[in-house]
Amino acid sequence: MASTESRFARMSRRAAITGAAMAAMALAACNGAKTAAEGDMAQGAPEGAKVTVYEYASVTCPHCALWQKNTWPAFKAKYVDTNKVRYVFRELPTPPVDAATAGFLVARCAGPDKYFDVVHQLMATQQEMITSTPRDWLLRTAQAAGLSEDQFNKCVTDKDAVAAMEKRVQFARSQGVTGTPAFYVNDVQVVSPGGEGASLADLSAAIDAALAK
Question: Cα separation of 77 and 55, whole Å?
């Protein structure tokens, strides 16, 4: 177990260092969230939909968790479940970057059919990251999704998976995204006052206008 945990720690430190380096990069001007990215996770309307809503978020971001709790249910019911829009979730780990990175790796290891369940569960239980340990929090979530502890250990130390995550983070940075949660309706960023993320009212205004074109 000690060797596995040490590998996890090394991978975590690598992820944290990489995240910090990317955050310090000179950011390119936003060249359109609509650009497809490898590894996009989506719900709702199929690819090529008239309107796509992009959310950049992190499982360790408190504001993302609040949006998930307070706005996602109504947004999902109004636009995703009805296939009015394609909703694309993009991973952008925030501090603690090692825990966020591992959380997204667990979501992907759980499989496409469980990905959003894992992401939503991690956001809903963020406090456990503080009251226990990040590893215990992640392991509990992984086991609830059907992964064994051995599968969990292999998942969060998978070099190829970490490298793929780094590419997704680099893509987000290249789009000019610097914080989470960040929302785009096609190419237009939607920003609401406060730190919780785009409100349903502001998202609806942008979505309905785009649908009407």
Answer: 16
Angle (CA) 54 58 63, round 5°:
90
Q: Could you give the number of structural domains in the chain?
A: 1
User: Order of strands across the sheet with 182-185?
Assistant: 41-44, 86-91, 52-57, 182-185, 188-190
Q: Return mean pLDDT, the chain.
A: 87
Amino acid at 82: T
pLDDT for 9-49, tens place per residue? Answer: 444 444 443 443 333 332 323 334 555 567 899 999 999 99
Query: What pLDDT score was predicted for residue 192?
Result: 95
Task: Give which of 71, 79, 24 is closest to 49, Cα–Cα.
Answer: 79
Residue whose pair of structure tokens reads 């992190």 in the numeric block:
58
Specify the pLDDT at position 25. Answer: 31
Domain region containing 51: 2-212
DSSP 8-state class, residue 95: S
Alpha-carbon 125 to chain mean position:
15
159 closest CA partner among 59, 23, 12, 24: 12
In one-letter notation, the amino acid at residue 199 is: S
- The rounded distance, in Å, linking the Cα atoms of 190 and 25 is 24
- What predicted TM-score, i.e. pTM, was given to this entire model? 0.84
Minimal CA–CA distance to 68: which of 55, 86, 82, 53? 55
For residue 141, give the CATH number of its domain: 3.40.30.10
